[in-house]
């Protein structure tokens, strides 16, 4: 029995875990959270929550949280606790010294999709205006950067097209590369409700996910081999075009007709037939036909996708192929349809919106555009560099080559999250100053020279933007235990570097964002407090926001069909590495577990396991619960085996929540051709019995 006291007051805020963005009432006694209660007026969750959000306050008071700044000259030295002033001056001196020695471009930073819009905006401002270069990237690089590329190319906007309410009008739900039952549970409940009401479900996934196994839901499951998304989507397009299922009126009115004709001729080629595709992908040709017909003719068709789409060498191509399908069938621009990326972290959408990419200022405007850059220069009172900066993998390569020596990482454990851990270690070890700004001494901090304690979502004001572009308030419920909210630390670091930024409250940062970002001109804290939330674009044309985009016309004008040639990944199986590893999540844990493992959620998850088909297990003498050695061309780790036919023969699957597993020791350097998003979802591996770690 857990004894809980009576709350004295409550504060409405937003969950800091996944991209659903559930609103909660934090019920408080003084500065102590008594419980988190899902808020009935939350427009993303309508009074519901999952097991992660309910216990989300636990890590704020966890004993392992670091509350004092620390510095050290070399990573071999012990950490030394110092004052904030001393730590910030030490960091600034190091970064200034690096720039004097190696040049202006030798430092950069990484923004966090866990932090608020305002904090992310300030980090990119510090880098562009304070460091004087555009070496800013975001942890979205490793998850949804292909979404930004693919949707802006085809529709003109780097965001999902619908609100969550739209699912109420959906007749066919097509889920590809996502498992919302585990990763976006509150939205999954709404999906399941609609499916129980009769909507049809198509799931394209190598694994039989919880969505496929949901009771009372009959799913058409297309279990493809990892890495073959583009081939399967092109086969669906082939069937739609060759069977005359295209919505020609929509395409003629809304899209570039000549580009459509080129695309239709491409997909109609017999090499994309269901039979030819089955050989490449392992998907039954009749299942492909049924899926294409149901999606094209079943009424309102909505596509939802996740990292199983983006984290591939053809991640951007896959997003484009999805957009092509939606346009060809007229499934865009009204409630119930659309293309909907399910964002992993709470503020992936926001961190991308706020100019965290090295080539884009806030609002996705290219840094080389003179008029836009001049607007920022006038507001920030600096001259900005017009050359795109380095992406995260380029920063690592440049560090190993000796030209990138200083990195500021806010709210992201890059050592645990980025692929090919050995390469990341080599890069971090080569740098002269790594500043980690986080809650806990994470794996990256092992290679850091400065540790700046971070604040949790309960200790700050700000906003998060969820997967449906909904901007919601984050409200401070307690004084930061470390002394400063993250936005204040960035201002102090900028000052120590010689670049002054003056804000008394995050609402003033949002006011500046609204002036500089056309999709945010109508956003203010006053409006958010009045309406509860708004979905961008929120401006003169849409003062209360935009739930569904591309109604009556695409943001880019005509919708653009782009040919998507399937190119198999270079990550191949062979006699030495005969199985393909793919990865996912479980319900009770969030990402690398840094937060959820420090809450009550820990009781639901002790370790990551390797799912292996009975046939593959028997061939290798592996029994359920045995330790196995999992090795790839990049590295190896040890896990317990779980024998299950949820995965097909030839495919193995694990989660990545526990640092002991080190799943990214295994993953390779291959990445998306357009955005460098790592190919986490396909790794050739071998498995052998082991005695344990
Ligand atoms: Fe909602 Fe996601 Fe938080 Fe769960 S983790 S409560 S679904 S925002």
TrEMBL record:
The UniProt keywords, alphabetically, are: Oxidoreductase
Q: What class of enzyme is it?
A: oxidoreductase
Q: Write the Enzyme Commission number(s) for this entry.
A: 1.17.1.9
Q: What is this protein called?
A: Formate dehydrogenase subunit alpha
Which span of the parent protein is shown here? 241 to 933 of 958
